[in-house]
Design goal:
InterPro entries: GPCR_Rhodpsn, GPCR_Rhodpsn_7TM. Keywords: Cell membrane, G-protein coupled receptor, Membrane, Receptor, Transducer, Transmembrane, Transmembrane helix. It comes from Timema poppense. It is a multi-pass membrane protein. This protein has three domains: 329 residues, Rhodopsin 7-helix transmembrane proteins (Rhopdopsin 7-helix transmembrane proteins, Up-down Bundle), CATH 1.20.1070; 87 residues, no CATH class; 67 residues, no CATH class. Helix content is 59%, strand content 8%. Strand 5 and strand 6 form a beta hairpin. It is extended and about 120 Å long. The chain starts with a strand and ends with a helix.
Length: 582
């Protein structure tokens, strides 16, 4: 670790005092807090989306799931490595040259670059998916299992394998790229590996990594944003043309047509074809979430990417301390001090792991509902209580002792359900109305008066204690038949004879106007066949109204009992109350 001294002049004499190194307690505490919050939020969000099949079917939710997985991996690998490096620098472990420190530094540099690449690729994939959906290209195709399987498994595999291939040379060989610990970043990074600094071969790998890993995903993101912006501007321009054409048409005809403000750019027009099963406002929320993620990535992650990529590509930005250090210390373990800007960028990247799940939970309504449901399930008895309250209360449960309802043992509950499974399989609430059919028609069974508990016999009361109540309330069965209204053959013949007369009468009416948008579209295309189309549409509407009016002249009543099979009263199953409870 770099040592600092303070020069003090006292009474004409010089005193050189070594400064105490800054304590790592405060950064370590903040790292632990960010690690705990970020890991809990991302793991909970990943578990919520992965356990819901309806959320996993959408490509947008699948990409959000991968982004949360990348943030969780950032917490597990990079934050724990930063905490380890911070403690090692504070205790001077790296200066002692511990065995395995070089391998640890290379692995940490590989994961630091790889997760940064992964986050950029995922943001670009999310932006491209939204741009394609706005253009009318749906990534997931319903009814094509092979395509769905390719998207479900091939897309995550491509997103994760692509950054791994790019950063694999960092952890494999030391001849391609050098690695050094950076004290202000709490991590290791890539540097030049040649002895004379400034050799051209040192720029090969950093240039490839920057071009393929960062520039291409950023270019895809920018192209997707520009495509969506052009689509929105095109829709607005089209709506202005339609509105202007409609105004000119009605001003030339001097018609008092009520102007409608429906030509404004709505979500249904801007978002393109309705390819998604979500409502329009939910699709708008998805685009809002995309904007929030891109802005957060641009503010918090992109500066850190420049700090870990640009210095390794530019010559002379870092001083090589390998020759000035101890001869026993490996060059890859000599720390580099960069300044406070690297420290701020590192903390910004770590805070991205916290803000990403918060934005998804706040804006995405479906994921928020799923997370709330899983969070409420953690409390004991919430689902059981809600289910018990929604079920109807039977006559037996009203007379059961209160002590028996509060059984604490799960084994006792299972045994109780097994004993009463066959006993009360036909038991139902006697106050429930029953509609049944016989040979005479439909009948409705109701309770006659109020069933009083005072009329129970002694034997009946003794059975209450044994959880078996034999109740015989009196019922009232009322005739409740229905009628089916159908046109007679005479009405059908009369309707056919009046068909030509009604068509001639309706054809003389003025054609209706079905909306400004369709009229404006015809004006833009300079079509002359608008009036003929209106006449055909009005004739069809008039004929439908005439047929509907003729159908309401006379009706024939048909009894429902004519279509019911002969069912004896004793075999209906609901006429006798004694049979239900024996």
């Amino acid at each position: 670790m770099e040592k600092k001294y303070t020069l003090i002049i006292e009474n004409g004499s010089l005193h050189l005092i070594q400064d105490d190194p800054p304590s790592s307690a405060l950064p370590s505490a903040f790292l632990v807090i960010v690690f705990t919050i970020g890991l809990c939020l991302n793991v909970f969000l990943v578990f919520s989306v992965s356990t819901c099949p309806s959320l996993r079917r959408k490509t947008f939710n699948l990409l959000l799931l991968q982004l949360c997985c990348a943030c969780a991996l950032e917490c597990l690998v990079n934050m724990t490595s930063s905490l380890t490096i911070l403690m090692a620098l504070d205790m001077g472990i790296l200066e002692s040259g511990v065995k395995g420190a070089v391998t640890f530094c290379r692995v940490n540099a590989m994961f630091s670059q790889g997760i940064a690449l992964l986050e950029g690729v995922l943001v670009a994939a999310i932006a491209a998916e939204r741009a394609l959906l706005m253009k009318g290209v749906q990534v997931e195709q319903v009814g094509k299992p092979k395509f769905d399987a390719a998207v479900r498994w091939g897309l995550p595999l491509l997103v994760w394998v692509y950054p791994l291939i790019l950063v694999l040379p960092i952890g494999v060989t030391s001849r391609v790229v050098g690695v050094r610990p950076f004290a202000n970043r709490y991590s290791c990074g890539i540097v030049r590996c040649s002895a004379p600094v400034g050799q051209p071969q040192d720029l090969v790998y950093p240039s490839i990594l920057g071009a393929l890993g960062y520039i291409i995903p950023w270019a895809i993101t920018v192209a997707s944003i520009c495509s969506m912006a052009c689509h929105v501007s095109s829709v607005k321009r089209r709506q202005r043309q339609l509105e202007e054409a409609s105004r000119q048409r009605h001003s030339q005809r001097n018609s008092s047509y009520l102007h409608s403000s429906s030509f404004g750019s709505t979500w249904s027009q801007v978002l393109g074809p309705t390819n998604s099963s979500l409502p329009l406002w939910e699709e708008a929320r998805c685009y809002l979430l995309l904007v929030a993620i891109i802005v957060t990535y641009l503010v918090l992650v992109v500066p850190h990417v420049f700090t870990i990529s640009v210095p390794s590509s530019c010559p002379g930005m870092f001083v090589d301390h390998s020759e000035t250090g101890s001869s026993d210390l490996p060059p890859e373990l000599t720390p580099i001090f960069t300044g406070a800007f690297d420290l701020v960028c590192t903390w910004g990247r770590y805070h991205f792991t916290i803000l990403t799940p918060i934005l998804i939970f706040t804006i995405h309504k479906e994921i928020r509902k799923k997370c709330e449901h899983l969070f409420c399930c953690c409390f004991h008895g919430n689902i059981v209580n809600s289910i018990d309250e929604s079920q109807p209360v039977s006559i037996t449960s009203q007379h059961v002792a209160k002590g028996q309802n509060n059984i604490n043992s799960e084994t006792g509950k299972k045994n109780e359900r097994k004993r009463n499974k066959e006993k009360y399989v036909r038991m139902a609430d006697y106050r429930t109305p029953v509609l049944f059919a016989t040979s005479e028609g439909l009948h409705l069974r109701l309770v006659e008066g109020k069933f009083s508990e005072n009329g129970l016999s002694a034997s009946g009361r003794s059975l209450v204690n044994n959880k078996a109540l034999i109740a015989e309330p009196s019922f009232l069965c009322e005739f409740c038949d229905i009628g089916i209204l159908t046109p007679t053959p005479i009405e059908i013949a009369a309707r056919d004879t009046n068909y030509e007369t009604s068509a001639k009468r309706i054809s003389n009416k003025q054609p209706p106007i079905f909306g400004e948008e369709s009229v404006a579209e015809q004006d833009l295309r300079i079509s002359e066949s608008l009036n003929s189309e209106y006449e055909k549409s009005s004739n069809k509407v008039g004929l439908r109204e005439e047929v509907f009016a003729n159908n309401n002249v006379n009706r024939k009543v048909v009894r429902f009992a004519q279509a019911v099979n002969e069912i004896p009263l004793t075999e209906s199953g609901v006429w006798s109350a004694t049979e239900d409870h024996t």
